[in-house]
Amino acid sequence: MDICSRQNAFLTIVLVSVSLLVVYIYFGSYTSITSHKVLQHFDPMIKGYRSSSNEKPFSGILLTVNFNHQFYGNIPLLDNYFGPVFDKVIYCGPEESSKYDVVVIKGERTYFGYMCLAIGIQKYQNYKGYLYINDDMIVNWWNMIRTPQDKIWYGKDIINEAGADMDKDPPCCWHWWQSAKALENCKNAFHLLQASSSKWNGSNFLKIYFKNTEGAHLCLRAWSDFFYIPKRLSGVFQYIASEFYKNRVFLEVAVSTMLSMLDERKNIVNLDGVYLPDLYGDVDFSDGKIISTIYDTKKSFYHPVKLSVPGEALELFKNVAVNMSEKYLKLYSNNKKFDILSINNVSDSTAHR
């Protein structure tokens, strides 16, 4: 073979190799990039989550807000805060309102707020999950964006030692056991649920309950101003909540006992919210002075925060929490990365101390 033929053969080999390399790089990179983008778009649990331009941070989630008092004048404020975040928001309270759409929960104020969520589930059955909050709190929703939506969320751990034995007299250290007949009513509701277990697949859920309570017949108690029920458990929650309501079971006993039936505690996500009475005791928080000194945008929520009272708490909510919410919503609307780094950067730049 002469030199010219060798050169032509060599050039042919080089051109074929380059062509193959280009095809590999193009299609290989395209496949890799496309897969990465698909994962980023559909899996909010990974770093680099991207939202679609018309997607809300909690698309498919129904939020219920319960008012213990008729402070319905705060609804526009809460609507502006939560409306762009959740697919739907409904409000409940002790009395009707001529100005706002409020679902009325009959009974003593503060006692049966969990029925707000049960009614929400009954009326709107096609949501992925259902979140309950009370109106007197600040919820930093951006810290929950990666919380698994197929699990129960709760604000604190449920501890057996805080409960009461159904077969004994009410403990002395928490007055609601007696003043609201919390133990007696809880016991009645529990026994009725046991008797009607065939109606709600109760045998399986009672097994879960006794595993959580280590075989004891306990009425539990824990802060219950914040909790979330995934769709897979929503029908059962609605049923047992109606039974607890019929028997007038006090909120903090009803919710913690019901959640102990729905899933093993190791599967319940504790968002570790800040309950001010745990830190400062039974004092008046309405002036907002305490929350204004400790509020941290990286905490999941704070309770109680009296937004119905003009003062430092209301100003904090408007000037800090609302500002933070708007920054995160802007990340969504601009279809920018909503990852751990961006959360920390925004939080640090707007930190309140």
- Strand content bin: 5-15%
H/E element sequence = HEHEEHEEEEHHHEEHHEEHHEHH
Query: How many helix segments?
Result: 12
Radius of gyration: 26 Å
- Ends apart, CA distance between termini: 83 Å
Count of distinct strands: 12
Cross-sheet strand order for the largest sheet: 3-2-1-4-9-6-10
Spans of at least 5 consecutive residues with low confidence: 20-52
What is the total number of structural domains? 2
Average of per-residue pLDDT values: 85
Kindly name the structural category.
alpha/beta
Largest sheet: 7 strands, mixed
General shape: globular
Q: Share of helix among residues?
A: 40-55%
Structure description:
- This protein is of the alpha/beta class and 353 residues long.
- The protein folds into two domains: 52-146 and 273-353, no CATH class; 159-222 and 235-266, no CATH class.
- The chain is built from twelve helices and twelve strands.
- It has helices at 3-42, 75-82, 114-123, 176-179, 182-195, 202-212, 231-246, 251-262, 276-280, 289-294, 312-333, 340-349; strands at residues 58-66, 86-93, 102-104, 129-134, 138-139, 153-154, 164-165, 218-219, 226-230, 269-270, 274-275, 301-303.
- The strands form three sheets. The protein has a seven-stranded mixed β-sheet, sandwiched between helices.
- The longest helix is centred in the N-terminal third of the chain and has 40 residues, at 3-42.
- The protein is globular.
- The N and C termini lie far apart (83 Å).
- 36% of the residues are buried.
- The model is unreliable at 20-52 (pLDDT under 50).
